[in-house]
Structures are given as C-alpha cells and as structure tokens.
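Lab notes, practical 5.
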Amino acid sequence: MTLTTLAKSAFAGLIALGGLSAAAHADGMKDPKDVKISFVVHGSASDPYWSVVKRGVDDAAALTGAQIEYYNPQVFDVIEQARLLDAAIAAGPDGIAVSIADADAMRDGVEKALAAGIPVIVMDSGEGPGMEMGVNGYVGTVSEYDSGVKAGQRLAKEGTLKVVCINHEVGNVSLDERCQGLNDGLEPSGGGTEVVAVTPDPADIQRRTEAYLSAHPDVQAVFAMGAGAANPLIDLFHDKELFGTLGLYTFDISPEVLDSVIAGEMGFGMDAQQYLMGFLPALYLVEVAVNGIMPINSTYTGPLFVDTPEKAQAILTLAKQGIR
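Output from the prediction step:
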C-alpha cells in the first residue's frame, strides 16, 4: 500500500512538534507501537464511502505503528454497532473513535468508555449528541442538516423543486437530517421532498426507485443520501435513459459519481473527504496516548460541492486510489 502525500505530511508535522516518536514521548506515556486504538463505525464493509474511511485508518496505522482495530457491522445495524462498542471497551484500548448514527443506541457505550478514562472521538456523524455526552472531539462534516439546506437552496435556484430522497440506511439520523435539510432548503421556493426507504442492496435500490418514479411522474430529481445509493442509481439512469429527463444528485462521492459528473450526467456530488475521518482521529488518539495532547475544537472535513467536470477530474485519480 502506498501512503498518501497528505498522510506523510501530517505525520512529519507531528514529529516536528515532538509527537509520535519513541524518543520524544513523555515520561509515563506510551511508545506509539504500544498504543491500541479502536474504531467502531456503523457503516457496512460493502459501502464505498466507508472503504475510504478504512483507508484513512490503515494509513494512520502504517504511519504511527499503532495497533488499530476497526469494527463495523456487516449491514447497517446500530444495535450490532453498540455491541461492537462494548466489545471494544472490554479490550481496554487507549482511545476509541466512533460514529454516532443513533444517539440512543450508542449513548451507554460512549458514556461507559468515558467513565473508564478512555478518550473518545466522534467521527463522521453525531457531533451534537457526542459533545453532549462529553466526548473529546469530532472529525467530520459540518451539520448534515445545514449541508442539506445548502443543497436544497442550490436546486431551488436551478428551478428543481420536487425531489425524492433515496435513503439506504433507514434509522441513520444523519441521513434523515440530510433529507430534512434538503426539504427545508427547497420549501421557501415552493418545493419539497419525499423519502423512499431502501436497503443497501443495489437491486432493491433500483427497483424501489423505479417504482416510485413510475408512480410520481412529476418528480424532477432524485437525490441519493450517499454513494452506496448513488452508484446503483447511476446504472438505473443509464438503463432507463433518465439522464436529461431527471436530475440526479448525491451526498458523498465515488469514482462512479465522479465519472458521471465528468460526463455531464449527474448535477453534483457532495464530498465529505471521509479519508480524513479515518486518518485524523487515529492520529489524534495516538498523540494523546503518547504525549497527552489533543485538539480542543471539532475538525471539519466538508462538504464540498463537486459540480463541474474539471473538479471531478481533479479528484478522480485519488478516488480510484481509495482516498477520496
């Protein structure tokens, strides 16, 4: 695996500050190679979004030499994620990074970790609930709701008012907030959204979306709540020749999304830069274990609108490497 220039630069910066080196760690603190970190996320292994997060985690482990475990359910299941968090806590790590898609499901585990003196960083989703629980930091996009509002306002300016949200992780509060924000961004212009709940299975995404569109011919655009839904929708739009008739947009990006933007098909994808959601929490948690220091503010990674072929092309090479 080739480490990214970003990863190498970040590591070099920490070394320059006296962190993450065996010679520099404070008395009584750990050598980086003895540090154990656990990531506990809600995203399934098959979701292209989360494979980029995992790449960031792996790069951080390779750079620091720390022992980093990565836990995730096979399918979206917050109860299973809570069980995995309990298992991670029982192993006694030096730090935990966790996504919070459902605050009620994750609260007990997060508070248990904090009570045990384990630093916890929330990543990807759940900044607000996490801070209420007393976590040590957050790495991810700004408010999912606000991101949705910006997307809705943008569509409204383009005259696209009737939009359907395709939600492939029903029960994920972050995706609910995305669609609610989208709706509220459209509403002042007379627009709005409806939600089609689907499973992560590509065939199910295509089948349910096609059925909805057949029953609602006045819909102007389809908005995927993530790349896991966007990729099958791109195929559906090709198969049914919907590009040019309906708009297609998505939160998050993938190589397929970028190719579609380059081809002038999709309107835009919203880049969360999720590689950083895996990479930075790992570095922060290793740093606090080695030197007892950590940033005091949230670290925001996006979103960025990828809305032109030029922007998409600039990102595509990195996306195909699993970095964007």
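Observations recorded by the TA: The chain has two domains: 5-141+273-293, 144-271. The mean pLDDT is 92.
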